[in-house]
Design a protein that fits this description.
By secondary structure, the protein is of the alpha/beta class. Adenosine-5'-monophosphate-propyl ester (PRX) binds at residues 241, 286-288, 363-366, 385-390, 413, 479, 481, 493, 496, 502, 507.
């Protein structure tokens, strides 16, 4: 058995040989002629000359040997449905959806925006897109009209796939009105909207634009739509994520590199085997859903569970009952979900036979030690933290126990994953920090491994400027996270260097929330910061300066205005982005040159020392924040 150190070393030093071997984990139509073309960094091209197809690798190639095997297991505790699709059935469903997309005019290279709850048709739509060479752009169902409109304008989809409604905690959440409003707000108008009607919420149809999926599916019941063989470098999808500026970035992913990276991760990190069952509790609207609900497990010939519902409804044993029922071998969730479970009766975790489970993988936000210990003890199964980003598509830091078993360290997502040359740099000088336990910006020396973002959709310049030019004197990919590495090569992640916050594992840009709050007629200026929260990891806190402070003159008036502002955010961005509190101040803490002192506000909110304040314009501004937080 190779040691992991050797495995990782080879992935960097013999990049071509290493990745050529991993590439054998997937099917190629035409073999590639070059493993890695990095002649125009940072625009690395993987598996040049090869042709393949994501949907073929996720579905078709398994049909012959595993046609009757479970592929997609759909469980909804919202609508009390449970439906298992075999690989043969999944193959048929994806072709029906693909035929519908083709009939409605979708062509190779077109974008299809998917705004869907967690239902099988969402996965069919994604797979149907990659099948025909169209790019999907999934927008999280919890986002509202303004968030959706900005993504429609950037992706310029030919068609949008949506549904009448989602459901959360038994409450129906209509999607169609939000979608109609978003299309009204957007400059770009999709030619077609394909509606999956779950019968949860009646909706109106725009003649000539909106089509119902059910009759189209019926019409194409026996459709045979071949996979479109595309270049390994053909973009498979875009997925929007938040950064420092208000405008979300469209992370663009390739085809061949992504398929290879996912397959390799299933084997070496997630301990999967073909024929077994994988359960990721994420949502298809996030990167974890793309990589580890849909593509990763299916590419590896596993069954994947798609779960619509809360982790504690009907009770806190629901997930564990699925683990037992479907003999889940690998499970993937987020620390927030575990903290929610922690508040429930721990007996719920003991009710079911979890012996099939090799490990529970957690990612998306820092895993605090009490939570890690609690879940490890309650489950009696290994807990494996891993760290990555929408941009990378698969883990940057993890324990690759499939290569060599390594001990976990509490608070650490592990070591650099194969293919990643992870380094730490001083934010101000750009000096590389090679010693143990030095705090720096976590960065990756290029080329990025297969599977990572190719560029920002239609904005190469932004890709270079944002990610590759932010550490002085260096052309390295920055993660925008602080971190340290200990003497054994284990990393510890210490929070973002930018204005991104992480609320219950959801990545949000504070600038986007500020823009939304500013649209309220009475708001002159606002600062939003992320503040530590015992349950959600972080919550957004807003401090606003009012045009007419008289409207918040009494505590009752302030509370009413706060509610109004929260409603604006709910309606524009979605409840996920709603700040926990909106407080009113007469002036915001700024430097003399007018820059908002967000880190100082955040520190004060968390009861920490705000640090160096020599450049502050008006010290009473921070005092107001302090008083509000104390009161
Ligand atoms: O700040 C890091 C945090 O989440 C960010 C990426 O979020 P997103 O693009 O939504 O991708 C999530 C993919 C799992 C990172 O920049 N983050 C992610 N995983 C961890 C983490 N922070 C600490 N520990 C982790 N394991």
């Amino acid at each position: 058995m190779t040691s992991y150190a050797e495995f990782h070393r080879r992935s960097l030093q013999d990049r071509e040989g290493f990745w050529a071997e991993q590439a054998a984990l997937i099917d190629w139509q035409q073999p590639f002629t070059q493993v890695c073309d990095n002649s125009r960094p940072p625009f690395t091209r993987w598996f040049v000359g090869g042709t393949t197809n994501l949907c073929h690798n996720a579905v078709d190639r398994h049909v012959a040997a595993r046609g009757a095997q479970n592929a997609l297991i759909f469980v909804s505790t919202e609508t009390n449905q449970e439906r298992v699709y075999s690989y043969a059935e999944l193959h048929a469903e994806v072709q029906r959806m693909a035929a519908a997309l083709l009939e409605l005019g979708v062509k190779k290279g077109d974008r299809v925006l998917v705004y869907m709850p967690m239902i099988p048709e969402a996965a069919f739509a994604m797979l149907a897109c990659t099948r025909i060479g169209a790019l999907h752009s999934v927008v999280f169902g919890g986002f509202a009209s303004v968030s959706l409109a900005s993504r429609i304008d950037d992706a310029e989809p030919t068609l949008i796939v949506s549904a009448d409604a989602g459901s959360r905690g038994g409450k129906v959440m209509p999607y169609k009105p939000l979608l109609d409003e978003a299309i009204q707000l957007s400059r770009h108008k999709p030619a077609k909207v394909l509606m999956v009607d779950r019968g949860l919420a009646p909706f109106t149809r725009v003649a000539g634009r909106d089509e119902d999926y059910a009759p189209l599916r019926e019409k194409h019941l026996h459709a045979q739509v071949p996979c479109e063989w595309v270049e390994a470098t053909h973009p498979s999808y875009t997925l929007y994520t938040s950064g420092t500026t208000g405008k979300p970035k469209g992370v663009q992913r390739d085809t061949g590199g992504y398929a290879v990276a996912l397959a390799a991760s299933m084997k070496h990190i997630f301990l999967g085997n073909p024929g077994e069952t994988y359960f990721s509790t994420s949502d298809i609207g996030w990167v974890v859903g793309h990589s580890y609900i849909v593509y990763g497990p299916l590419i590896y010939g596993m069954a994947t569970i798609m779960y619509e519902g809360l982790p504690i409804r009907p009770d806190a044993a629901i997930w564990w009952s699925l683990v037992e029922k479907y003999k889940v071998t690998s499970m993937f969730s987020a620390p927030t979900a575990v903290r929610v479970l922690k508040k429930q009766d721990p007996a719920a975790l003991k009710k079911h036979d979890l012996s099939s489970l090799r490990a529970l993988f957690l990612a998306g936000e820092p895993l605090d030690e009490p939570t890690a210990k609690w879940i490890a003890e309650s489950l009696g199964r290994p807990i494996i933290d891993n760290y990555w980003q929408t941009e990378t598509g698969w883990p940057i830091l993890a324990l690759c126990n499939g290569v060599e078993k390594a001990a976990s360290k509490f608070g650490s997502p592990g070591k650099a994953v194969f293919g990643y040359d992870v380094k730490l740099f001083d934010e101000n000088t750009g000096a590389e920090l090679t010693g143990a336990n030095q705090k720096g910006v976590v960065a990756i020396e290029g080329p990025l491994p297969p599977g990572c973002m190719q560029t920002v959709w239609r904005d190469d310049e932004r890709f270079v400027k944002t990610y590759w030019n932010s550490i002085p004197g260096r052309s390295v990919y920055t993660t925008f996270d602080w971190g340290i590495r200990d003497e054994d090569g284990y990393f510890f992640i210490l929070g973002r260097t930018d204005d991104v916050i992480n609320v219950a594992g959801h990545r949000l840009g504070t600038r986007e929330i500020e823009e939304s709050i500013s649209s309220h007629a009475n708001v002159a200026e606002v600062a939003v910061v992320g503040v530590a929260d015992p349950l959600k990891g972080q919550v957004a806190m807003a401090f606003a300066v009012l045009k007419d402070p008289g409207k918040a003159a009494t505590p009752e008036m302030a509370l009413k205005l706060e509610g109004e502002i929260m409603k604006v955010v709910d309606e524009q961005l979605g409840a996920v982005a709603r700040p926990a509190r909106v407080r009113f101040v007469s002036v915001l803490p700024k430097t003399r040159s007018g820059k908002l002192l967000r880190r100082a506000i955040q520190a004060v909110c968390e009861g920490r020392d705000p640090g160096d304040l020599t450049t502050i314009e008006d010290p009473s501004a921070l005092q107001q924040v302090k008083d509000l937080v104390a009161g």
